[in-house]
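Fold it.
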Amino acid sequence: MAADDLGVDLDDDHVGVIEIRRPPNNFFDQALIAAIADALDELAAGDCRAVVLASAGKHFCAGADFQREARATTGSGDRHLYDEARRLFEQPLPIVAAVQGAAIGGGLGLALAADLRVAAPEARFAANFARLGFHHGFGLTVTLPLVVGHQAALDLLYTGRRVDGEEAVALGLCDRLVPAGRLRAEARVWAADIAASGPLAVRSIRATMRGPLVAQIRIATDHEKAEQQRLQATDDWREGVRAVAERRPAAFTGR
């Protein structure tokens, strides 16, 4: 990972800011998710009390770049992307995600790894895996129904349809809607409000409220990974990736 792919800062009000710097799409890979997890661990070991997760440029995160799939999911020592993703749920700090533009596929999974989300009206959320002939991942098996409910999660996963900021608030995908020009500032104000609470109490409350999530994410990502690997051997997966690259509807055959 390039040294400038991730920015980390800590304000005087105990708010850490982690910024993904791979514009415009901010695709992630195993190395970037590991770096975010490392940054969270380091902030948690210091004076940080809450974190803003943000991205530079047009989009929050368009997920993995499937044109460079192998590098996106595996890294040194055969660690998988989801080994690092689980660390985002295990760390103790509350996270407020600032979502502009697209949070698509694994990018939606990254946004839902945060405790809270602020989005602009122009934001677009989509669990587009089925449109690729693929199984969803990044723990969305657990996090998506948790925030939108089971039936809405089925709709979003089966259809892969896009949801704008206003519908995202209505569904529960994001918690607050603010103009794009104020997005980062509003996320930082919310994080600072959290940081003003007793830090030991916040960590304790977070551990109680999200405690079962860690075990659920581990089970879910193991299953998601196995299903993704199985479906990557199919004609439908190859057609889905080609169709996205060629900006056309996929012609799936069920094989």
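The radius of gyration is 17 Å.
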